[in-house]
Amino acid sequence: MLEKYIFSEREECWRKYWEENKIYEFNPDSDKPFYSVDTPPPYVSADHLHFGHIMSYSQAEFIVRYKRMAGFEVFYPMGFDDNGLPTERFVEKKYNINKKQITRPEFINKCLEETKIGAETYRKLWSLIGISVDWSKTYSTINKHCQKISQWSFLDLYKKGKIIQREEPGAWCTTCQTAIAQADLEDEENESQMNYINFKDEEGNDLLIATTRPELIPACVALFVNPNDSRYSSLVGKKAIVPISKHEVPIMTDESVDLEFGSGLMMVCTWGDNEDAKKYRIHNLETRAILEADGKLNELAGEFVGMTLKDARKAILEKLQNNGELIRQENISHVLNVHERCGTPVELIKTKQFFINILDIKDELLALGEKMNWYPAHMKQRYIDWVKALQWDWCISRQRYYGVPFPVWYCEKCGELILPEEKDLPVDPMNESPKISQCPKCGGENFLPENDVMDTWMTSSLSPLIVSKLFENENVQNKLYPSSLRPQAFEIIRTWLFYTTVKSFYHFGDVPFKDIMISGHGHDEKGQKISKRLGNYVPPEQVIERYGADAMRYWSTGANLGENLRYSENEIKNGSRLVNKLFNASKFCLSFLSYENKELSEDLEEEDKWIINSLNKTVSLATKYMESYQYSRARNEIDDFFWSKFCDNYLEFIKSRLYGDVPDVKVKSVLYQVLLIIMKLYAPFLPFITEEVYQDFYQKDIGEKSIHLSSWPKNIEIEINEEDIASFEKAIEAVAEIRGHKSDNKLSLGKELDEYQLKIEVDEKHFDFIKRAIKVKNLIPRK
RNA sequence: GGGCACAUAGCUCAGCUGGUUAGAGCACUUCGUUUACACCGAAGGGGUCCAGGGUUCGAAUCCUUGUGUGCCCACCA
Fold first, then answer.
1. pTM for this one?
2. What number is the ipTM of this complex?
3. Could you report how far apart the first and last alpha carbons of chain A are, in Å?
4. Quick one: which residue's CA is nearest to B27's C1'?
5. Is the CB of A185 under 7 A from strand B?
6. Residues A388-401 pLDDT 10s
7. Same domain for A342 and A361?
8. Does A587 contact strand B, using a CB cutoff of 7 Å?
9. Whether residues A237 and A338 fall in one domain
10. Where is the Aminoacyl-tRNA synthetase class Ia domain (predicted)?
């Protein structure tokens, strides 16, 4: 064995070894039960991975490695999420462009280039950290394979009547210039003013209304009061005059108006918010849509035409002020919905979009949520809350460039929607024509492509299907779907997890995966969320260079599932200390071991039985914890066994037997077995150092090409008498007592005592053990 | 306004279904070159287990109320 473990050299060596020998390759012909992982495809646009990513991927990987050793044929693919708005936003920012300044093909090319760079960066980091992914099985959400499945999904749902195209007011981002979905909204605390503004009634009397959106005054279509509000009952049914634009609007009643709010008079505009949109349906209001897709006002806004909402607000308030119609302003702080990708406040605009019906299947989705196993269990509640709170159907079309195109054309003459055959997928309607030459409805011969692309979640919501379809064989596909495990972070429960469940329900009527493990976030040393903006993290590559991948992984074991984990250089150092300790303990053991002395003797010493008994308990607990995704607890048990039971006690106890004139064969057999099991227990967490020890000694004897393909340990079967163990533990206490005595008297532990009188009671049959374990010539029992 | 989680040593956290003196790692103090390891070993100091109330022979653990922290959702004229 090596004299010293230089992790940088050795880790690189094992990375190569695993790759060259295809250690983690999935074998679809295997007889073993399959365990498939629906790996989260990171957004390549995330640009740089930080240790939060390392944490969550490592945590999933601990389980994957355990399952592989526990006898499953593990399918662990990797995907890259590189289509859609996140990538577009990334490219726009990086090159300081927007979709209007560049042609569609140019823009798509830039996105594809960045996608390639991103994927390569990620792959390097994942290999660096030792992620046991089968790199021959990857996908990227923009590739043909994914486009085909996404378009198939569209066709299937369209034919089932679950996708509907309709024109209605919906969430719109004026920066990204596209429709967005409810899940794309984020709350943001905002400082603003409540403006009290005078309208006029028919007789010219003042009508005070309160609004946070004065810029929408030209879009006002009605005033509302509560039907029980006696102050205004005489006005109901009459008209009001809107300031500035001077158009007339009806005064109506609606139960939802709060008597206490402002003056009790409410202005409804096209479209102020979701509530307004509802009133349009109920009261059949006319519309005055002043906002265009680019966020600027149109002719209906009169003199404010061409202004952005922000500028219009300023100008309108100024004018109201000059006219004496702005009575007063109050500073308020309120929460408004912004687009999560760019932070722009979300507006409502009436557009034609494709929607997937989700509001009608809430019960079914809740039932599927119950059917899946959530780790930790309380994360299920977030899913339930989200499903129950859904207000809109899922808008799946985006007025963007870089995404999967809809497989849709329209007949130029009659507008009929034309779909391709399933076998012709994927199609790009903007570059190819439909296979049919005539519209089946009107016989028209010209077709127009659908220019929109799909929401990025339309593709990622199919990830379990995408990975199963990486295989031709249908039998294999069916064994891989639903996935065994979906590991992911909590903030995308309402998107990735939710949408995947929707798709799985509509396509197959069942869950997309069986178990879900939800990880927390990585935080900086102070407990703040890591973000690129704050720059509060060290690039993981640097940490790995300094302390090694095993040490970095060790830090990841520090948080239970669902919990956030602070970055701590100290914990990483602890990891490298452990690696060092494992190496040294192994070096020591291996210097005495040989393949001949591995069968356990019938007649073991008490300390041998004790260590085997402790090990068995550790194996049982670690197995139990790994089975329930509690890798953190498993690691605690293993650490405690290795560090304090095995190193601090057992190895010290047996030194006299190993260094004796007559070699003790019994103790060698124990070491052979125990050390191997220690390595196996640590293998999921510390794949490099454990491989080092395995390859150095055990591999030739056992035969498996890698410790990571060897079997998860079982208990060593020996006869254990619990009373004997308890009695022996008294002897260990006695050793501790004598250590204390030596420490109190400032003596070296190696110094032999002539005589010692015990303070605790110990069976005299253990005296010989105590004498040689702690070096005492004469031991006197307790009086 | 609703939901979820958390609150234990200076710090980061274990303590799961209630049971003898509440644990670990780091930090701190003292000691030890012992032929695997000083990236080590031994010993030690340090805690009204957030607060009040309740259940119980017995509560850090269960119930309840409150306080504080974090996250999510809703409202958002």
1. 0.93
2. 0.94
3. 49
4. A570
5. yes
6. 999 899 999 999 98
7. no
8. yes
9. yes
10. 15-566
